[in-house]
Design brief:
mainly beta; 8-stranded mixed sheet; 5-stranded mixed sheet; 13 strands; 11% helix; binds calcium ion
């Protein structure tokens, strides 16, 4: 797969937003057109490529369905590593007037990557289809076709870990509580994946987490918070704490 980034025309730009997502989760990216420095736009075409090892394409919304201003001509094609669209309006009333963020497509991917903390780019490309669909904007005045500036979107995979594997060796055992105590009180090295050390996921890493681990292992105490001590998974969505997972362990 060849990803192409054309030189910006200056007047038009197409871009995708960035999102973070967890393994196995659907993630929506939005595709925008900025013609705020140009003329009204009557049509467009593009390919959008992704890495099929990292992402699976689930759905592409109809062009400009989000605003309700559906093109009169619309052709979508789906490929293993991307999709293409051709779209155009017939009547000038419908042309996209100059605006910084026309939201044209919603694209849903599922995150497949098994490598951790990975970023995967979703980029405009002119390589899909026979003949390949070029990335172009058609101006409403004069029908001139121009190549817009293009900016990729980035899907950042949330790291996955076993809750309680504080030393990052892949197992949850007494060594993790000892590691945490030494890290907290004896100037030991910082944990490779802080979130794994917050066993109760209360947003604070302290002696309570070391005790939690010991109670779990030896006193029939509660399991560490999801994703739990036995299977790797991401931190719970919606839990906002300052901990990350800089060096995710082997899973
Ligand atoms: Ca461990
Ligand atoms: Ca805690
Ligand atoms: Ca957390």
């Amino acid at each position: 797969m060849v990803l192409v980034t054309e030189v910006a025309s200056g007047q038009y730009e197409v871009y995708l937003n960035d999102r973070a997502a967890s393994l196995g989760e659907p993630v929506n990216l939005y595709l925008y057109l900025d013609n705020s420095a140009g003329a009204a736009v009557m049509g467009w075409s593009w390919g959008v490529c992704h890495d099929p090892a990292a992402l699976e394409l689930l759905a592409v919304s109809e062009s400009n369905a989000i605003s309700g201003n559906l093109p009169d001509f619309y052709s979508l094609a789906i490929y293993a590593d991307g999709w293409t669209v051709d779209a155009a309006y017939e009547l000038p009333d419908a042309y996209l007037q100059p605006h910084a963020s026309h939201r044209i497509n919603r694209v849903t991917y599922e995150v497949l990557a098994t490598e951790l903390g990975e970023e995967s780019q979703v980029c405009f490309c002119s390589t899909l289809g026979t003949p390949p669909v070029a990335v172009t904007i058609t101006e409403g005045v004069g029908g001139t076709t121009v190549v817009p500036g293009q900016e990729c979107g980035v899907v950042t995979m949330n790291p996955i870990f076993k809750r309680g594997d504080c030393n990052g060796d892949g197992a949850v055992d007494l060594a993790d509580s000892i590691y945490l105590l030494i890290s907290l009180f004896s100037a030991g090295p910082p944990p490779p994946c802080e979130d794994a050390c917050d066993l109760d996921d209360d947003g604070a890493i302290n002696i309570g987490d070391a005790v939690f681990g010991i109670l779990y292992l030896f006193q029939g105490g509660s399991e560490p918070a999801l994703p739990g001590p036995n299977e790797c998974g991401p931190d719970l969505p919606g839990m906002t704490d300052s901990y990350g997972c800089n060096t995710p362990p082997e899973c």
